[in-house]
Amino acid sequence: MSSPARASAEGPSAASDEAQIGVGIGKQVRQARTEKKLSMRALASAAEISQPFLSQIESGQTMPSLLTLYRIANALDISPSALLPADPDPEVVHVSRAADATWVPVSEAYDTAHTRVIHAGETSLQEYVIRPGEQVGDWFETDGEVIHYVIEGAIALEIEGLGIWELGAGDAVAHPGALRNRWHLRGDGSARVAFVYTGG
Question: What's the domain range around 181?
Answer without folding.
Answer: 122-198
